Amino acid sequence: MNARNNQKHTRIGIEMVRKLFEEGKRIFTIADARKAGSYCGIADNYVVEALYHLSNTGWLARLKRGLYLISSSFPGMTPVHEFEIAMALVQPSAISHWSALHFHGMTEQIPQRVYITTTQAVPISRAVKTRNISQ
């Protein structure tokens, strides 16, 4: 019975993700999901539960609280560039330092991290686990 409920949650949630994908939202917030969910007839209070089930089944990756990424396993989805993820995690921000130098061909060293600069105070050197993100 539990597996059947999970399939139901996933099927309903995929309609919401399809709507987000059609709107070009590869990385989205819960507010974006609620808007897409209401378009698909999903109750506002069910959206967070649907996101939870979709994250557990690999259709989404949770980047941080309230921020999700559509997995590249979703039909028609191409992998999201690491710069796009970094800039979604910290706003406002700009790609900088070694990441920018490598991107513009000014160094042959490949950075192990994505470096960004922001005007906002953020915790130093916060690593993000990218579970369920297929590159």
Explain this structure to me?
The chain is α+β, with helices and mostly antiparallel strands. The protein folds into 2 domains: 2-70, Arc Repressor Mutant, subunit A (Orthogonal Bundle); 82-117, no CATH class. Helices cover 41% and strands 12% of the residues. The protein contains 5 helices and 5 strands. The chain has a 3-stranded antiparallel β-sheet. A two-stranded antiparallel sheet has the order 4-5. Helix 1 (2-22) packs across helix 2 and helix 1 (2-22) packs across helix 3. It is elongated and about 50 Å long. The termini are far apart.
Supply database-style keywords:
AbiEi antitoxin N-terminal domain-containing protein; Arc Repressor Mutant, subunit A; three-stranded antiparallel sheet; AbiEi_N; elongated; 2 domains; 135 residues; 5 strands; alpha+beta; 5 helices; two-stranded antiparallel sheet
Helix-strand pattern, N to C? HEHHEEHEHE
Portion in strands: 5-15%
How many individual domains?
Answer: 2
Nearest-angstrom radius of gyration? Answer: 17 Å
Question: What is the CATH topology classification name of the largest domain?
Answer: Arc Repressor Mutant, subunit A
Strand order of the largest sheet: 1-3-2
For the termini, the CA-CA separation is 33 Å
User: Care to count the β-strands?
Assistant: 5
Average pLDDT over all residues: 88
What's the main sheet like? Answer: 3 strands, antiparallel
Q: Tell me the name of the CATH homologous superfamily of the largest domain.
A: Winged helix-like DNA-binding domain superfamily/Winged helix DNA-binding domain
Organism: marine sediment metagenome
Domain AbiEi antitoxin N-terminal: 16-70
Protein name: AbiEi antitoxin N-terminal domain-containing protein
Pfam families: AbiEi_4
